[in-house]
Structure formats: C-alpha cells, structure tokens
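Batch manifest, entry 17 of 40.
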Amino acid sequence: MTGSELDAACLRARPLPTPEAGSKDDRGSVLVLGGCAEVPGAVFLAGVAALRAGAGKLKIASVRSVAVAMALAVPEAMVIGLPETGGGEIEAEAAAPRIAEAARRCDAVLLGPGMNTCAITTTLVRTLLADQDEIAYVLDAGAICGLAAHAETVRALLAPPVLTPHAGEMAQLLDWDRGAVEAEPLKAARRAAEMLRAVVIMKGAESWIVAPDGAHWHYDGGGVGLATSGSGDVLAGVITGILARGVDPLTAALWGVYLHGDAGARLAKSVGPVGFLARQISGEVPQILQGFSASRSV
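Output type: structure tokens
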C-alpha cells in the first residue's frame, strides 16, 4: 500500500475542532496514568502536554508517594494518589477500581509513561482495557510491551488505540531483535497495527504512522534534539490531548507527530540543535496550532 508524507498540507485536510465559547468539558477530559517512585516526571510531562494540545481537563494518576508533589507541580490537574508496591510501582489489584472510576468520566486516557515493563504494568493495562472498552486510549512505554499476549483484549476496544513505541519497546512487543526493528521499522509497525488493530507510531529519527488497515505516513522532521529524556512522554501527551478534543485516533496520531516534530524544529532554531528540554517542547505547541488556525481564517 502506497504511503504518504506527513506535512502541513496533510493536516489541513484533517482539521481539528475549533474551540467555541463554552466550558472546559467541551474540549475533553484526559487521564494520564503512569509513573513510579523513581520516574514521577513522565506523567507530569505528558499531562502538561495534553493541556498544551488543547484538552480542557486533566487528571493525573500515579503512586501515592508522589501525589502531593505532583499536585503542586501541576496545579491545573486533579491528582489521584494510588496504592503502591514496596518497589514504588502502582499496585495493580488495589489501584484498579480507583483507576476505572477516574477513567470512566474521561474522553481520552494515556497509559504507560514512567511505568516499568513488568507483569504488574501488563495486568493493570489489561484490566482497564477490558473494563473500559469504549474509551479512546493512547498506550506508551511500559503499557506496550506485554500486549501481544492480550491482543484480543486490545482488538475488542471500540476505537483503535494509539501506540507510541520506540525500537526497544516494539522489539519486546513483537518478540523481534531490536536490530530487526531498526532495519525495517515500517514492517514492524505494520505487523503491530495488524496484530492489535491499532494506530501505531514507530518512533525514531524517522517516524512511521500506520493505520489498522495498513495505510501509512512518513515523517522525518524535528531534528536530533528531540532525542532527549522525556520527549516521548510529551509526544504521547500531545496525542492524548488532541484525541480528547473529539477527533479519530489516526487524526490525533498524525497531528501529534507533526506538532512534536515541528516544536523540535522551532527549538533547534531558537535554542540550538541539541540541549533543549522535553518540557520546552510542549510549550511550542499552542503557537503552532495558532498558526494553523490563522492560515484557515485567511
């Protein structure tokens, strides 16, 4: 199947809803679930990015030991402190009812940033997907790697989820060598999209976005500066924020990849090709979105 280049013209054919006068509920509610005692910042980066992408409301759910600090760091969010294991991970069985309650009132849910790849994470993700199959999901980091054993649960979701793996996570998902993924990233993304009936973003120096039917887009913008800690958390958050605004998963993925990359390109000019921080990436997103809005009004 022939692919397409992801560029501004491609996005203009898939316009985002224009916010009108109204409440924050009209722009959608996001839940970001993830983090652990050692990596609390991932959900912070993702949550702020979701708001920067235009979502109206934000909930962050992470381990109880970081909840107070998170609430102070992101005063715009409702922060939910979850039971945790002795190792500082979310305790899946004890936390599941609270997470399900929080997710039930959200338009888009991001699972995985800052979560380790382990049986606890996989159990939590599988339980939520099976219980709340009508929600729009973005699956990142630790939420991805164990999905192959639960493909039918993922395929049963009413809307295809968006997956955002890097090469290592894709290798674990498909049980391939990492070198094989890096040699044929499009092939890997197509395999994952088919297996899970998902929109898959194969991240890297070049990104490939593949729809469940095999249609694909290529993006090579952004620059090397985006290869920095926390950058993937920002990407996942931007996608989730756009998804909450009411667009379909593929449109959210395409916009998210482009906005993330264009933000990197802008920072490369204003800061330098390397050295800018992930937290700065989401700060560029509203201005890029404004540029699209201005061009539509001309």
